[in-house]
Amino acid sequence: MDESSQVLKILSGLAISIVGFQICRKVLPWIYTNIVGPQLIGSSVNLAKMGEWAVITGSTDGIGKAYARELARKGLKLVLISRSLDKLKAVAKEIGDEFGVEVRVIDVDFTAGFEIYERIRKETACLDVGVLVNNVGISYNYPEYFLDCYKADPKFLCDIVAANIHSVTHMTAIFMPEMVARRKGVVINLSSTAGVIPNPLLSVYSSTKAFVNKFSDDLQTEYKAHGILVQSVQPGFVATNMSKIRKPSVFAPSPETYVKSALSTLGFAGQTAGYLPHALLQLVIHFTEALLGAQFARNLVLKNILGTRKRARERQAREQQKKQ
Ligand SMILES: NC(=O)c1ccc[n+]([C@@H]2O[C@H](COP(=O)([O-])OP(=O)(O)OC[C@H]3O[C@@H](n4cnc5c(N)ncnc54)[C@H](OP(=O)(O)O)[C@@H]3O)[C@@H](O)[C@H]2O)c1
Questions:
Q1: Which whole number is the average pLDDT over 296-319?
Q2: How many angstroms does the Cα of residue 88 sit away from the middle of ligand 1?
Q3: Mean pLDDT value across residues 300-312
Q4: Which letter does DSSP use for residue 132 in this model?
Q5: 52, 65, 192, 250 — which has fewest CB within 10 A?
Q6: How far is the CA of 297 from the centre of ligand 1 (A)?
Q7: pLDDT higher than threshold 90 for residue 27
Q8: In testing the pocket of ligand 1, which one of 55, 67, 70, 82 has its CB within 8 Å of the most ligand atoms?
Q9: Which Gene Ontology cellular component terms are annotated (predicted)?
Q10: At 1, is the pLDDT very low, low, confident or very high (cuts 50, 70, 90)?
Q11: What is the DSSP string of 29-57?
Q12: Rounded to an integer, what distance in angstroms lies between the CA atom of residue 286 and that of residue 297?
């Protein structure tokens, strides 16, 4: 064997080892947390054993309501927290009648200021809360450049931080002390795929969701030894009011389909897309970044989002014309 073929043999051996190492390090855990664990083994986290009550924010619609229904189905009593009292009462009755569990409601606006947390603390003071779902979140009406967004409504940028970040932080601070004292509890935080992939033109929204991922990750490290499970859930599109998608599909499932899937990942993944097609979508974007470069992936997403912005602005112009 000549020298060049020997070098070739060593290099190909090295390449095979690197690929093999990457498969063991990244691909196998991905398969376990997204397919084998949730779909073949099933979550072993017994939510009903965490405590008598579950608290869910933003729970009159969409993903929050779907979490409320699934937790009631498991026998937990519920505290639903949203803005509109009428909607809260209607949803409380619907879920209470269907699953035969007690449902209480608290009407607060998570953009209203710090005082709301004192009210929530007081109204839940004697409840044994074992599950907290920090679901409430708001987003842009449509993708927009940061400066145009600020010019149109500067207060909105305060509101989005209050609803998406302060709510998660303060609700956790209210309910985790008791969980820690009892050495059991589950905190589920709704992030978004927007928090883990490039997301220009939704920059403030996606940054609030990146906060949720980081906060959840570090919180889990701090309190794992205290028996607390913290999960950050990162959906892609789900057919809700927020996404404005009416008809569910494989890549934009109904909130019920999404939440059933997300709950099956509990105990397998601290950070999860929560639903296999969304996990695949994240994977494709991360592979594009790795193979073709981060800038290529950013430009690809930007082009796509600019298309969404153009269509949304045209729709808005048509609606305004109709009104005149
Ligand atoms: N849908 C998606 O495609 C998607 C994708 C990724 C991540 N997410 C995340 O998933 C979570 C839920 O989204 P969703 O699509 O289910 O939203 P949604 O359908 O718009 O429902 C939002 C819920 O939050 C409540 N809410 C809104 N603003 C509030 C405020 N200021 N104070 C109190 N309650 C408020 C609403 O109730 P009232 O109107 O009665 O107050 C409603 O119950 C959010 O954190 C979102 O960022 C959603």
A1: 95
A2: 14
A3: 96
A4: E
A5: 250
A6: 28
A7: no
A8: 82
A9: endoplasmic reticulum
A10: low
A11: HHHIIIIIIIIII-----GGGT-SEEEEE
A12: 8
248 pLDDT higher than 70: yes
Number of the ligand 1 atom closest to the C-alpha atom of 205:
47
Q: Indicate the top mutation candidate among 63, 199, 238 to test ligand 1's pocket, ranked by most ligand atoms within 8 A of CB.
A: 63
Q: Which of 117, 140, 205, 258 is catalytic?
A: 205
Could you report the per-residue pLDDT of 130-176, keeping only the tens digit for each? Answer: 999 999 999 999 999 999 999 999 999 999 999 999 999 999 999 99
Residue with tokens 């009104």: 323
Q: Which amino acid is at 119?
A: R
The binding-site residues of ligand 1, defined as CB within 6 angstroms of any ligand atom, are 58-64, 82-84, 87, 109-111, 135-139, 163, 190, 192, 235, 237-238, 240-243, 255
- Give residues with Cβ within 8 angstroms of 276, minimum separation 6: 34, 35, 39, 261
Mean pLDDT (whole number) for 21-35: 86
Domains, the chain: 45-275 (3.40.50.720)
Quote the pLDDT of residue 15: 86
